[in-house]
Amino acid sequence: MSALAELPVVVALGGGHGLAASLTALRRLTDHLTAVVTVADDGGSSGRLRQELGGLPPGDLRMALAALCADTRRGRQWASVLQGRLHSRGPLDGHAVGNLLIEGIWQETGDPVAGLELVAQLVRATGRVLPMSTIPLCIEADVVGTDSQAPDEVQVVEGQHAVATTSGLVQAVRLVPAAPPACQEAVKAVERADHIVLGPGSWFTSVLPHLLVPDLARAIVESSARRILTLNVASGHETAGFSPSRHLEVLAEHAPDLRLDTVIADELFAAGDRQLEGCCAALGAELVVADVAMHDHTARHDPLRLASVYRDIMMA
């Protein structure tokens, strides 16, 4: 832990609902929190704004900001505003209010990082939200099983939304452009961190992309921080049928130089996976198995249970 800080300095990487769950847990432990968010979304409101305005997609950044709003009446109001959707019979229908707010502030400041800082101040977010790259990215995947006539043939699927919803089995992903510029503020945050949290989230489109931005990946690999990987509580659409150990194997295939210190796995998802502990050891990590899932039959993390596990790891 940093000598000058009583609370741990934490960087959490990811996107979408997975990162939001992690941030909701982590904000209970520290004010020194930075979210580094994927910028490859091309669907929904973000995709429409990206197509029209050409800048970074704001959706995952908005979700991170909403997750960092305080658990107070004012904080919950701001989170609701950011996540709210417009309803109309015109072209604004379906746009997230927070997306439009972020886009408007970006146009005013001309600087994505400064704009996000301004939004964070407005909603009194705990910590910072940064993009992983300074340019919008495209995700490209090798997928098998999309053609019933040639089920073993590898097809290239382009775009985050298309990859996330493909009917085939994703084998590997890459970014376009292949070596995008990292957000330097994000790199510096990783370099200063006591703990780096990767995951949970959509494995191919939210978790792995951070390890494909060269400068950011290098900072993660070379960091002296404790690296924590939070596995999903179940296999999702992108990783249908994947065991927890298969998630780790895919991670290692995409980031062979990465070593971890801790892997967190939900007890029900980890049950019966005899290879999991060995896969963790191969990455240098200790396996922590705990009850971190919601008990409502949804494949989501419980922020309170997850916060308890993070606390035990970070305060040890």
Automatic annotation (TrEMBL):
Cellular localisation: Cytoplasm
A Gene Ontology BP annotation from the UniProt entry: regulation of cell shape
Record key words, sorted: Cytoplasm
Keyword Membrane assigned: no
One cellular-component annotation, GO: cytoplasm
Coiled coil: none
Record-linked InterPro entries: CofD (IPR002882), CofD-like_dom_sf (IPR038136), Gluconeogen_factor (IPR010119)
Main location class: cytoplasm
GO molecular-function term, one example from the UniProt record: LPPG:FO 2-phospho-L-lactate transferase activity
TM helices/strands, residue ranges: none
Pfam families, sorted: CofD
Family statement: Belongs to the gluconeogenesis factor family.
Function description: Required for morphogenesis under gluconeogenic growth conditions.
This protein's name: Putative gluconeogenesis factor
